């Protein structure tokens, strides 16, 4: 479960304080798919960074999976993020020096798992996503949709409790958008993962459990607006 209460986030630009989030509240239950929509610069990515413990709120309280992050030291947040949170970005951030299966296996290898077991599990996920025949390819040889499916596999391989997807279909055509989005939604439901999407794509809204519009630094229930 994700609980954000009265979250504020400000940045200093020169001599000006820029308020991005203003007493924002969000409650997400286990295995829900939640969408955050809004124009560029509205604070969607900032919100995902806060949930992902990549940034610190200026004010308010963040509680994830019954852990209060106001009480944790920075190194404790790093450990929690590493063990429990997966990320998918619009720029998939795959490593060109490694082939597909190695890219997917990387989170397990970094956690000290054996190479053989990590590669085996990576191929299990590639098979689920329909791209097992690309396992030896370098990322640059894949289509945009295939690259994003590799990124999904990499994010899910450690079985996170929370999956954060920041515009994961923003650079894809309609067909690949549908494949990638449905893959994320299906696997997150099957594995009971909380998934939070930041997206511009209003066509995806009706497929989500909840959807909020980012407006004025707050979240507004979009489906009921």
Q: What share of residues are in beta strands? A: 25-35%
Spell out the CATH superfamily.
Answer: P-loop containing nucleotide triphosphate hydrolases
**Strand neighbour order, sheet with most strands:** 6-7-8-3-9-10
Could you name the CATH topology?
A: Rossmann fold
Supply database-style keywords:
single chain; alpha/beta; Rossmann fold; 6-stranded mixed β-sheet; 4-stranded antiparallel β-sheet; 33% helix
What is the secondary structure topology, with strand pairs?
Elements: E1 2-13, E2 16-28, E3 33-37, H1 44-51, E4 59-64, E5 67-68, H2 74-84, E6 85-89, H3 100-110, H4 115-128, H5 144-156, E7 162-166, H6 174-190, E8 194-199, E9 210-215, E10 218-221
How does this structure look, described?
This protein is an alpha/beta fold. It has one domain: P-loop containing nucleotide triphosphate hydrolases (Rossmann fold). 33% of the residues lie in helices and 28% in strands. The protein has six helices and ten strands, in the order E-E-E-H-E-E-H-E-H-H-H-E-H-E-E-E. It has helices spanning 44-51, 74-84, 100-110, 115-128, 144-156, 174-190; strands at 2-13, 16-28, 33-37, 59-64, 67-68, 85-89, 162-166, 194-199, 210-215, 218-221. The chain has a six-stranded mixed β-sheet, sandwiched between helices. Strand 4 (59-64) and strand 5 form a beta hairpin. Helix 3 (100-110) packs across helix 4, helix 3 packs parallel to helix 5 (144-156) and helix 5 (144-156) packs parallel to helix 6. The longest helix has 17 residues, at 174-190. It is globular and about 50 Å long. 39% of the residues are buried. The model has no long low-confidence stretch (mean pLDDT 90).
